[in-house]
Amino acid sequence: MTVRFGPMMKSSRFASVLALALVGSLSLAACGGDDGDSVAEDVETVIVTETPGGDDSTAPTDATSSPTEPTTTETSVEMTIAPTGEVDQAELAEDIQTAQEVTDAWWALHWNEYFTGSYTPPNVVGLYDGYDEANAPTCFGEVLPPGNAFYCPDGDYVAWDKTLLELGYEIGDSWPYLIIAHEWGHAVQADLSMDLQSEQYELQADCLAAAVLYGAARDNPPTLQFEPGDEKEIVDGLNFIADEVPWGMSGDHGDSFQRIEAFNLGRTDGVPGCLPGMTN
Question: In this predicted structure, what is the pLDDT of residue 84?
Answer without folding.
Answer: 56
